[in-house]
Amino acid sequence: MTGSDSTDTKGGPPAAADFAAERAAMLRAIAEEVLWTNRYLGKTALDPRVVAALEAVPRHEFVPPDMRAAAYENRPLPIGHGQTISQPYVVAVMTDLLHPEPTHRVLEVGTGCGYQAAILSRLVAQVFSIETVPALAREAALRLQRLGCANVEVRHGDGYRGWPERAPFDGIIVTAAAPKLPPALVDQLAPGGRLVIPLGPRGGDQDLVVIRREADGTLDRRSVLPVAFVPMVAGK
Ligand code: SAH
């Protein structure tokens, strides 16, 4: 194991070199899986801006301390409260499917530990993220602030309703599976905007779906990839 895991960084910002070798290995694993799945994705490599964001964000800061050694493995990990941090390949593909641009305002449903939000914060102007578990929302907001992600706003709430006060959004990314398309999220999509969402039953056949609102308001729908996400819970 390389990386300076033993360095005491308590209270200070993480050194940029921390886990650099592990992060590079994670990027190779993602690139390989993109190649294997190129028929689904319709491409053999991801947007270089997305890859650069994955290279920059310290994933080990987003997992519980006892999971740090595994933080860069290409698989989901438990983050407490029965929830998980998504697999790096899935984060990479979903971010790529969103076609993030520097001017975009993006809504995320399912903040979890905040990793996906941190990736987006490097790619778009503003990120709004909703989480249904209050403790996760609170911890993610503090973590993102500590890591300097100043353009992310996190709030506790029900993602099924979206965030009407901040709508419309150029992109909406949902990181938990919904049984069907939440109408509020479609309503909050700006013309030209994309909604990336896993659709399907709990623990069953789920499809990663991209909905695009065309300039004339019509919706275009494409199924990209079979996936397995934790279920989106109904509103509180
Ligand atoms: N994006 C996260 C992955 C989180 S897993 C990351 O980068 O790590 C999915 C998250 O969705 C969980 O934290 C879960 O609590 C949250 N969630 C489930 N249903 C929700 C809802 N209706 N509204 C908001 N968040 C929800």
SSE diagram, text form:
Layout: H1 20-36, H2 38-41, H3 48-56, E1 77-80, E2 83-85, H4 88-97, E3 105-109, H5 115-121, E4 126-131, H6 134-146, E5 152-156, E6 169-174, H7 183-187, E7 189-199, E8 206-213, E9 219-227
How would you describe what is shown here?
- The protein is α/β, with parallel strands linked by helices and 236 residues long.
- It has one domain (16-227): Vaccinia Virus protein VP39 (Rossmann fold).
- The chain contains 7 helices and 9 strands.
- Helix 1 packs across helix 4 (88-97).
- The chain is globular.
- 42% of the residues are buried.
- Mean pLDDT is 92; it is low at 1-13.
- The protein binds S-adenosyl-L-homocysteine.
- The site of S-adenosyl-L-homocysteine has 23 residues, from strand 2, helix 5 and strand 4.
